[in-house]
Amino acid sequence: MRTRKQTRAEESADAATSSPTPSSSAPTVVSITKIEGPRTASKHDDVIVETASASAVRSKLPTLIQFPLVAILSLALSQLGYSLAWAQTKGALTAHARLLSTWTDFGLVVGWRLFELALGWFGNYDGYDITALNLLSSGPLLYLLFAFYEVPASALLITLGIETIATYIPFRLLRPLSVAHSDPSRAPNAEIVTDRPIALLTTLLAGAIYSVTLFFAYATYLPSYLVVYFTSLPSVASAHEATYIGLLPVTLVLGFAARSFIFAPAEGVPKAERFDPVSASLPETVRWNFWGWSAQTKVVIRRTALLMLVSGVNTFLQTRLTVDGVETPGALAWSSVWVLGAAVTGLGLAAVGSV
């Protein structure tokens, strides 16, 4: 028979064996396997991901066929749209249209369209980006037809809608939106990207820059080029009657597109790590001296340069090859206005973003 005293003794022995060993009985060993110093800006840091977040679902189609599919869809949608809208646009647009009479002209127009799509696709832009870029590059020609050739606004809006759909849908189907466009509240610097007063002010700033640039061209060199090199132009009265306020309805649309294409994506990228001159190598130091801008500034520079290229070349080709009576110097003069406007707009938005 067990006594109460024996039971208590056994319980005390079990508690003693199950209790943890005091920390003082065995020394704690800390091993250091790797020491990392401040990391310098590498080439990888210069690659800024401006597309979708990791949670976005990308297309499961093979990579090799994605861009050809985008190009085919865009051209097919464009042709389908113009065919369906032919009854509403044929009288207004064909009156001043220049037919593409040679394969060279046709190849230039179609080839540039494909090149523009390639810039957007391989530049990793999403549907909103390429749509804004298309609006900024197509707007100058449509404004020219409206202001000087008296083409009805309804026909031009239909044309703009066709081009917008033909550009947006292929990119939207095969590439997810960037975080700055799909969910701005989750983007870096969300307090700036989602701020409505900032969005309004940057739109007004970009629109005002385009308005002042166009008014400056009207007041200096552009009217003489319109008279001499636009031989079928009915009148240049619009150039002499233009005012800052009168141009704003058009330029504010361009300002909104410029804000969407340049400012919002730039503010929606994370800040890169600071450069450490102590541990940097010579090539990294040289590269930093030439390209050591902040992540936001690099995005603004790239996108402004792309906007200048696309708006300039597209405006020149469309004006020179599709509008009757336009000569090469006249097309160059007209496109130069929008290249200058894009450059100054990029500088203005960069200045706002650096504050």
Structure description:
It is a single chain. This protein is mostly helical. The protein has one domain (61-353). The chain contains 15 helices and no strands. The relative contact order is 0.14.
User: Could you give a short account of the major beta sheet?
Assistant: none
Give average pLDDT, whole number. 82
**Count of the domains:** 1
* Low-confidence residue ranges: 15-56
Shape: globular
Strand content: under 5%
Number of strands: 0
Q: What share of the residues lie within helices?
A: 55-70%
Radius of gyration: 30 Å
The string of secondary-structure elements, in order, is HHHHHHHHHHHHHHH
Number of helices: 15
Structural class: mainly alpha
End-to-end Cα distance? 88 Å
Labels describing this entry:
mainly alpha; 355 residues
Summarize the model shown.
The chain has 355 residues and is mostly helical.
Secondary-structure map with pairings?
Blueprint: H1 4-18, H2 63-84, H3 86-94, H4 103-122, H5 127-148, H6 153-174, H7 179-182, H8 190-193, H9 196-219, H10 222-229, H11 237-241, H12 244-267, H13 282-291, H14 295-322, H15 328-353
